[in-house]
Structure to design on (671 residues):
């Protein structure tokens, strides 16, 4: 689906900070001033190593955490502060999340039908029992499961099927934005491809936008329209997939890209991946500001660094 | 049989007794490994990769039965060359002579394979004290040098720390150091980088390669990541439902795959140049080995399946001296079947990229 970038962005994150106070003298600064936008129907990929704050961003946006600072606008509503009743309802229906491990994110004591229908139950969006079942079965069919699966328990499914249940649970509220937090990392290669295709189909059909959080860069490249590279809570580089992959500016992005092993033995055996160490690189992320490279390609660095890299 | 072999798994067949019935997890596997070589075993979860290696270590679960087969391991001790069949030895003997000392294993998740209540140093020294009856001071010195070998700075300080004080990549380095502590001849890496990030993954793989070159040991990689395989392996075994469906030299598997399952695996993983609107998928999911059906286990998911696939399991067909594949498509009576177009284009692209490094194919 073509994304219209002249539209108003669906989600706008400005200077988001998320700090976790551990003790009087020590605060974990998980996210340090991150800004990006997601347009309707777009897939935005967030990549970075573990501990870089990518999952935290997803959780702050959907308000599993209360953001320390910054502004998050979703659907023209500011959702970073205290939420009113109607705003909360809008946020809880229009934004949904798919989690990494389907085994631990599905309640083992609930039937799949009840897991998927929980959102419907809470928001009372059905007329009667039959209507509820009809809606659940329609969603099951959409994610490639059979109607009789409605009365089964999560342990009766395989990993790929379970993740389909997770997707169905997100879809039932007809969300405008789905946050997919490492949703394919726990799956096998052949199953990963099935789930990714399913997510693409759903996007075609419903026009939902994705915030796709992952560390598998080849998958991110495949599914995303735009990408943001995250390290130590700073959004170092963002741009369209092409801009990032064909012209990486930041040394961290370069090292990340060069670390992806490609299934090509002769190439792989001759290639040495670039290394990057924040401590010895002499770069201070806190001093960096956003610099425009071209189009929608931004990199966070100081003026001198920008001169040197471009 | 080659003279230089170190491990030779022959017709291995294992089943597990479960409450639901007998699960036939391994159905006749042959793997041999020479000194200094790297073999990769690739397959989906549940295909039997880990079970095979656990059998070689003599650490199978209690409900496992070995129906047939031998696992021969060759090593040298004071009395000269020894060849033992690991399956015939009792657990105590294996513990004393093989595990950790001659065959060492690196597991997937370093957080669960390290003991959270013991310091790094204590865990490193454990094997040394046990196998070699070293004095504590000697063991300590050796442990520190091992930590340095795997690239951990200020090793002395780290010796006193606990696993939770280290990062994921650092922990995996410690696990590798422990595996190397008793100078094993064979290192088995069971998904060593699956739990790690790409950047750290690259470093750990490079570390294992470096250690292998320096020490001349053999390595078996168990993984489902074909990118990792491409980086490390000399030989590749593709496993599906407890059987090896294709085996060969790395270049043969990647540039000239013959089995439809290998085609599927290669196509399902997007490389950085993939821009087809849809990813190729292998339809369905792996079979349940509880209810065995006659014929090729891959047939229900195989769009190239022939009639005979439902009746008879294909034997290994020879492609070249080193390259074998178990698919009826290679039988001379079979119709000519081409691999999917997208894969063919991709292989051409891969060969072109490879040619830039001046290698002949």
């Amino acid at each position: 689906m073509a994304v219209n970038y002249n539209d108003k962005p669906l989600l706008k994150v400005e200077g988001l900070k998320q700090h976790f106070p551990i003790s009087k003298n020590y605060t974990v600064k998980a996210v340090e001033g991150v800004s990006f936008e997601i347009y309707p129907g777009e897939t935005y990929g967030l990549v970075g190593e573990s501990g870089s704050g990518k999952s935290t961003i997803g959780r702050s946006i959907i308000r599993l955490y209360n953001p320390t600072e910054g502004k998050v606008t979703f659907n023209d509503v500011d959702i970073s502060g205290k939420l009113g009743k109607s705003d909360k309802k809008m946020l809880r229906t229009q934004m949904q999340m798919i989690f990494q491990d389907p085994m631990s994110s599905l309640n083992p004591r609930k039937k799949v039908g009840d897991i998927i229908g929980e959102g419907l139950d809470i928001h009372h969006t059905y007329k009667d029992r039959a209507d509820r079942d009809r809606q659940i079965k329609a969603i099951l069919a959409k994610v490639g499961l059979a109607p009789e699966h409605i009365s089964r328990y999560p342990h009766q499914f395989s990993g790929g099927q379970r993740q389909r249940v997770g997707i169905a649970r997100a879809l039932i509220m007809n969300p405008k934005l789905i946050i997919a937090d490492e949703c394919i990392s726990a799956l096998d290669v052949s199953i990963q491809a099935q789930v990714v295709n399913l997510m693409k189909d759903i996007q075609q059909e419903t026009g939902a936008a994705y915030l796709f959080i992952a560390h598998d860069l080849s998958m991110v490249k495949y599914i995303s329209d735009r990408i943001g590279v995250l390290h130590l809570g700073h959004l170092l580089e963002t741009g369209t997939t092409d801009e990032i992959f064909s012209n990486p500016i930041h040394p961290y992005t370069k090292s990340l890209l060069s670390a992806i092993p490609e299934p090509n033995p002769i190439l792989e055996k001759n290639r040495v991946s670039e290394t990057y160490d924040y401590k010895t690189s002499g770069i201070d992320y806190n001093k960096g500001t956003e610099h425009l490279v071209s189009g929608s390609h931004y990199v966070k660095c100081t003026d001198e660094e920008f001169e040197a890299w471009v | 049989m080659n003279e230089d072999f170190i491990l030779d798994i022959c017709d291995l067949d294992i089943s597990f007794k479960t409450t639901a019935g007998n699960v036939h997890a391994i159905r006749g596997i042959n793997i041999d490994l020479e000194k200094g070589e790297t073999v990769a075993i690739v397959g989906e979860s549940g295909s039997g990769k880990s079970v095979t290696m656990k059998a070689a270590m003599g650490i199978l679960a209690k409900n496992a039965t070995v129906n047939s087969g031998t696992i021969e391991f060759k090593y040298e001790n004071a009395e000269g060359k020894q060849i033992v069949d690991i399956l015939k030895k009792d657990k105590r003997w294996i513990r004393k002579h093989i595990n950790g000392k001659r065959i060492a294993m690196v597991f997937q998740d370093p957080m669960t394979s390290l003991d959270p209540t013991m310091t790094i140093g204590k865990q490193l020294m454990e094997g040394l004290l046990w196998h070699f009856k070293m004095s504590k001071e000697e063991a300590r010195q050796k442990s520190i040098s091992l930590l340095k070998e795997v690239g951990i700075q200020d090793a002395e300080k780290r010796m006193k720390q606990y696993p939770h004080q280290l990062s994921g990549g650092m922990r995996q380095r410690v696990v590798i150091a422990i595996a190397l502590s008793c100078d094993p001849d064979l290192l088995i890496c069971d998904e060593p980088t699956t739990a790690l990030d790409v950047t750290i993954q690259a470093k750990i793989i490079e570390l294992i390669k470096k250690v292998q070159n320096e020490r001349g040991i053999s390595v078996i990689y168990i993984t489902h990541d074909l990118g990792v395989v491409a980086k490390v392996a000399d030989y590749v075994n593709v496993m599906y439902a407890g059987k090896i469906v294709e085996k060969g030299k790395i270049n043969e598997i990647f540039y000239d795959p013959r089995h439809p399952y290998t085609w599927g695996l290669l196509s399902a993983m997007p490389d950085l140049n993939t821009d087809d609107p849809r990813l190729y998928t292998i339809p369905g999911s792996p079979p349940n080995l509880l209810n065995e059906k006659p014929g090729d286990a891959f047939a229900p998911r195989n769009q190239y399946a022939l009639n005979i696939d439902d009746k008879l399991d294909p034997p290994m067909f020879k492609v070249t001296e080193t390259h074998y594949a178990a698919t009826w498509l290679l039988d001379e009576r079979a119709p000519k079947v081409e691999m999917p177009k997208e894969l063919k284009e991709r292989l051409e692209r891969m060969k072109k990229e490879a040619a830039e490094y001046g290698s002949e194919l």
In short: Residues 189-206 of chain A form the longest helix (18 residues). The domain at 11-104+177-193+200-309 of chain A is CATH 3.40.50.300 (Rossmann fold). Chain A has one domain: 11-104+177-193+200-309.
